[in-house]
Amino acid sequence: MSLIPQLHRGALSSIARLLDNYDNYLSNLNPGSDLPICAPSFDICETEDAYYFYGELPGVQSKNLYVELRDQHTLILKGQSERQSSSDVKGGVWCVLERSVGDFGRIFSFPTSVDVDGAHAHLRDGIISLIVPKGASISINKKVTIESWIGDFP
Question: Which protein family is it in (predicted)?
Answer without folding.
Answer: Belongs to the small heat shock protein (HSP20) family.
